[in-house]
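Supplementary Methods, section 5.1.

A reviewer requested that the exact input to the structure prediction be made available. We therefore reproduce it here, unchanged from the version used in the analyses.
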Amino acid sequence: MPEFQTDFDPAYGRPIAVAPNICRVTAHNPSAFTFAGTNSYVFGLQTCCVVDPGPDDDTHLDALEAAIAGRPVEAILLTHTHRDHTGLVRGSPRAAALRSSVAARTAPRVNCAPGKPSSWKQPATPTLPSIGFSPIRSA
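The structure derived from this sequence is encoded token-by-token as follows.
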């Protein structure tokens, strides 16, 4: 039986550097499904990308905005469509600025999974900063 490390300090509400130019922000939503909470990541220098923006929660959005630190957000990347990862891209009025800052610069959505609607198009030459991933709806 593998041993799992469970001594994790989520440091809720604060961006934590995990590697050069990459920080983690953990939402305060601990559960059997999220462990200590949903982890969001922000990476980049002058501009940034956000991975799994997290749940629709004002405190988490404040922490995420602190991690973004005024940089333009080039893309929002989602690892999957659970609400604890996608809540801030779904409808939070406060997150509208985050969504609109990306919408003006994103390429067409990329179909990463078979069976998605045909309206999803693969860009001819995808590059990470120019691709915005977002779900059409939750699974």
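The CA atoms of residues 21 and 44 lie 6 Å apart. These observations are discussed further in the main text.
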